[in-house]
Specification:
The protein is α/β, with parallel strands linked by helices. It has helices spanning 4-20, 22-25, 33-40, 60-67, 82-91, 105-108, 131-142; strands at residues 51-54, 75-79, 96-99, 119-122, 151-155, 168-176, 183-190. The structure holds S-adenosylmethionine (SAM).
Length: 191
């Protein structure tokens, strides 16, 4: 369980990043543990292979994914904000933390050769980006998914933040009221 002081430092770190670059943070506070659990439930821990998280921030979703039973060595995080990336490195032993751009994954994930991911989680605030950028993001991410694997994206909007690329479907997997603001969990998959 997260200690109150950890939650407070996480919130302050989040607030500092929000002031520095509001568009890429896109929320007033980190996601709730309830949202973390709703996202982690979409992952089948028995399905082998690496798992990728984009925009982990202070690691609320990361913690939920680990609690779901994904071993730290299976998990790679891509975070843009250097302060948060440093924090994640110190906080999650054995997890691979990359400071980089989730919109340019081919470059960010180099030079390691990687097998397709068995799940990808995204906390990137897609609604803050123009539709053309969202599509580029989604196409880049879908290229990295193993057959049948989920891309799990949360958003604060009524509709999926981007239409699935050709050959993919999207469903609303959960509505989480216990989050500020309430959030929807979207799961994209190859048809
Ligand atoms: C809405 S916050 C979500 C943080 C965390 N996943 C949560 O749910 O509490 C968005 C996060 O995405 C990161 N981010 C935004 N744009 C990014 C990009 N292009 N590449 C990697 N991370 C990015 C931000 O720095 C921030 O940590």
């Amino acid at each position: 369980m997260t200690a109150p002081t950890d939650a407070l430092t996480g919130n302050l770190r989040f607030l500092r990043a929000l002031v520095a670059h509001p568009k890429s943070i896109g929320a007033l506070v980190p996601s709730s543990r309830a949202l973390g659990r709703a996202i982690a439930r979409q992952i089948d821990p028995g399905h082998p292979g690496p798992v990728l998280e984009l925009g982990p921030g202070t690691g609320v979703l990361t913690q939920a994914v680990l609690e779901r039973g994904i071993a730290p060595g299976r998990l790679t995080l891509v975070e843009f904000d250097p302060d948060m990336a440093d924090f994640l490195t110190g906080h999650f032993a054995g997890v691979d933390v990359i400071e980089g751009d989730a919109f340019d994954l081919a470059r960010t994930l180099e030079p390691k050769a990687r097998e397709p991911f068995s799940a990808i989680i995204s906390g990137i605030p897609l609604l803050n980006f123009p539709m053309a950028r969202r599509r580029i993001f989604m196409e880049g991410v879908c290229r990295l998914l193993a057959a049948g694997a989920p891309l799990i994206q949360f958003s604060y909007g009524m509709h999926a933040p981007v239409v699935p690329p050709p050959g993919y479907s999207v469903v609303r997997a959960a509505m989480v009221w216990a989050n500020l603001p309430p959030a929807r969990v979207w799961v994209y998959r190859k048809i």
